Amino acid sequence: MNPQALNLTWATDAMRRLEDEMQIASHTDTSVLLTGENGVGKRFAAHTIHQMSERRGAPFIAINAAQVLTTASTSTSRPADLFASDFIRAAEGGTLLLQDIEHTPAEVQSQLLRLTERRVTATPHVRLMSTTTTNLFGVVQAGSFSEDPFYRLNVMAFNIPPLRERPEDIPVMFRHYLSLHAGTDAPGLSTAAQRRLMEYPWPGNVTELTTVTKTLSARRLPELIDLEHLPCPLVGCQSRDKEPRYQ
After folding, report:
1. What are residue 205's DSSP bridge partners?
2. 153 and 174 share a domain?
3. Among the residues of the chain, which ranges form H helices?
4. What is the mean pLDDT of residues 1-6?
5. What is the CATH number of the domain that holds 178?
6. N or C: which end of the chain has fewer CB atoms below 10 A?
7. Are residues 219 and 129 in the same domain?
8. 67, 85 in Cβ contact below 8 A?
9. What pLDDT is recorded for position 111?
């Protein structure tokens, strides 16, 4: 999400503000909570903060929170020990990203506090970041997530808006990823193609957008991308002769 990492200039104030906030986060060592729909780039944003921080030379380890119990358990007869896990040791000195934090097993939630407590000398020196697609405070109110870990994880919280809420960024990102995947300068967009890209709701967000650019880059690129060059999910193809899905 960092324009320097993507070589982008954001067209929307929302993303420029997010960039500024991420810069601030990179100069601290506090916990970061990234929220947003599936596919908006939460993991990439976390990695970008890590890369801009003093921890950039240390590991960045991402794991799904639902897997923590299995990964941390050393035997079936002992409770899960988060600090005996391989992924904690692997992240030493760097950043640990827990994805879909709301699915963290109850047995492990209390141990998350130790990752944010510098006073506990036994705690590995790891910066903790987390992601969620839901309203985590609502999960807390429902009794499915403990309050203490929530407040420790929520020191700096950033919401990444979906593409449909920032359509002005879409053509810029589209041409960037198309150039990246094609290995050459991206062609221009016709007025109709650009309008369609901006009007399309992008349910898969950035993940879907990058898939579209990969599909286009697999073919010989035209000098100007028009509606006829866009995959069917974007233009509502009805003919069986036209490819119905992304490749």
Report:
1. none
2. no
3. 3-6, 13-26, 42-52, 68-72, 86-90, 106-115, 136-141, 147-153, 170-182, 191-199, 205-217, 232-235
4. 48
5. 1.10.8.60
6. C
7. no
8. no
9. 79
pLDDT greater at residue 85 or residue 25: 25
Rounded CA-CA distance 209/174 in Å is 7
Residues in a beta bridge with 132: 35
The pLDDT of residue 83 is 64
Residues 37 and 69 both lie in one domain: yes
Residues 203 and 155 in one domain: no
- For 75, other C-beta atoms within 10 Å of its C-beta total 7
- The pLDDT tens digits of the residues spanning 197-234 come to 999 999 999 999 999 999 999 988 999 999 999 988 88
pLDDT value of residue 120: 45
What six digits make up the tokens of 84? 């005996």
Q: Give, in order, the Cα–Cα distances in Å from 141 to each of 36, 110, 193.
A: 19, 17, 45
Helices of type H across 9-135: 13-26, 42-52, 68-72, 86-90, 106-115
